[in-house]
Amino acid sequence: MNTYVNKKTFLVFIYRHRWKPNIFSLFNNIFSNFFPIFIIKIPIIGKFPKKIICHVTSNMAATATSNATFRLGNPLSSSSSSSVYSSNKLPVNFRKFALQTSPVKSFSVSCTLTRKPVPAAPVSMDSDPNGWRRPDSFGRFGKFGGKYVPETLMSALSELDAAFHSLSKDEKFQEELAGILEDYVGRESPLYFAERLSEHYKRPNGEGPDIYLKREDLNHTGSHKINNAVAQALLAKRLGKKRIIAETGAGQHGVATATVCARFGLQCIIYMGAQDMERQPLNVFRIRLLGAEVRAVHSGTATLKDATSEAIRDLVTNLETTHYILGSVAGPHPYPMMVRDFHAVIGKETRKQALEKWGGKPDVLVACVGGGSNAMGLFHEFVNDKDVRLIGVEAAGFGLDSGKHAATLTKGEVGVLHGAMSYLLQDEDGQIIEPHSISAGLDYPGVGPEHSFLKDVGRAEYHSVTDEEALEAFKKLSRLEGIFPALETSHALAYLEKLCPTLPNGTKVVVNCSGRGDKDVETVIKHLRV
């Protein structure tokens, strides 16, 4: 059958080799008007399978594929020669069906995952005390995440997952990484009390929150991106990969990757949207100065989404020699977990520094969210602390109702992009909507799957600010504290305007200053009067 159907109930007809084709053809002709049918061939000897392996593809992205195993349940009918199964409780909706006989050992069928999968059971911290130790063994955060990639990538991702878990317990690797982070990157980054900014948000009675900045902008290369780049470069060396590729939006991840490749003597290719290259000429020059090749991406919207797509295409064709240093907590498993854990040093240092400075924990954590790596790096350490508020701030662009924004968690729907299920900006047909933000680093139509999970279970809250509000926050921090924040960071700072009036006196607020704003000066000149 090549028709599209919309039924949750289907039949699986399993038969032995000795059956003649006209028997199951007749069976198909009789029942196909009522149920979608899969026909699976098994050997004459052996038992009928109790489960099937379904090869799932998605109409939401060209590269979205995954394997899943489903139990068939009790057969509708059974004999020594055949069994017929029906199921309407599978964890996916089936949309496209095709007759298929599969190899003897795999019992596989093909199907297409619809845009709206059957929702997973709700997860809460109270009902699942270990629920935050994510992802699960399938790379999922609740219903989000996974590995929706071509079969050619599955073994490479499995190898990467195994290497990551092995090296996380390797004392020599961890010592080398810690030494580089300290001596080369310059960790730990300061937790700075922004005294004048705090005074600015005091109410007329003199009360208000105490605002601290986690100064990731002071890291080597000027942002948090170097944490992950260093760790993945070391991992790539252990895997014997000498060619490194990466995507970049604002250019900070590109600079960080090019930097560590220069440090370790690795070939480096950076994919960057042509539009982002125009917005970030300084970082393009820095990447090239470091010896890396910058490949402009002109397809699609010529921004971060398209740069990521091109990097994935490169990886598929160069698996033997190439490691992809993905820059955010997005993409297929194990990247969201791996990038988060490499950035978790941000939150670990924050906990330690808060204890030293005021003898407690932060009350509120605030970070900008594009793909979400800097936010997860700060949040992860505190996810189990119920009394710590986690606030992510997205780019509202010209306004949420304008259609020109990048507020994926605020306005998006669930779908699959770049190998993972998450919230996306998409139209009714599942096509990606072009995002907009004055910040190249937030100009992405998806978000890391763990952020989607934290949103759905209510552990984190997500808000948005406009381009104009971010620009004002850029100017405000510059004048009050003498710090140029990146335009990405400026979104987090801008949300303080709405947040601070609601907070009790003495509330300890930590804002992740994820990057410095030198790279954005040319953009700011075009929009701000100074």
Automatic annotation (TrEMBL):
Recorded metabolic or biological pathway in which this protein acts: Amino-acid biosynthesis; L-tryptophan biosynthesis; L-tryptophan from chorismate: step 5/5
Required cofactor names: pyridoxal 5'-phosphate
InterPro entries xrefs: Trp_synth_b_CS, Trp_synth_beta, Trp_synth_beta/beta-like, TrpB-like_PALP, TrpB-like_PALP_sf
GO terms for cellular component: chloroplast stroma
Source taxon at top rank: Eukaryota
Record SUPFAM superfamilies: Tryptophan synthase beta subunit-like PLP-dependent enzymes
Cited NCBIfam families: trpB
Protein name as catalogued: Tryptophan synthase
Lineage summary: Eukaryota, Viridiplantae, Streptophyta, Embryophyta, Tracheophyta
